[in-house]
Design a protein that fits this description.
About 25% of the residues lie in helices and about 40% in strands. With about 130 residues, it is α+β, with helices and mostly antiparallel strands. The radius of gyration is 14 Å and the shape is globular. Keywords: DNA damage, DNA repair, DNA replication, Hydrolase, Magnesium, Metal-binding, Mutator protein. This is 8-oxo-dGTP diphosphatase.
Length: about 130
Amino acid sequence: MKQIVVSAGIITRDDKFFVALRNQDQHQGGCWEFPGGKCETDEAPLTALKRELAEECGIQVEEAEMFQRIDHDYGDKAVQLHFFLVKKFAGEPHGKEGQVVAWVTLPELSELTFPAANQPIVDALVQQAAL
């Protein structure tokens, strides 16, 4: 089974997180996610993050740092996810591809349904905030 490499951005502002709802026809459709997408062949995860967030959310990433890498096997698909904390960006994030998006607080984030591979990130953000 081929592994898909994905970069995703944890975009924050004013103690809120920017999330997008996956379309029903996508893998894990109907779940919320941190925006991002597949890395092209030989594309570095940070480069992919910048490209994907420009395409999906209309922002230019100015500062991002690696948060966590997760390897997850869904059974029908294996993914390697690179999650970045997007600390600084230009532009106003929006659903550039028509996807439903929202700014949510940490308690609201905990209530949303995420793909299984994303849940450890939500848990880590909650744990980090509790420190």
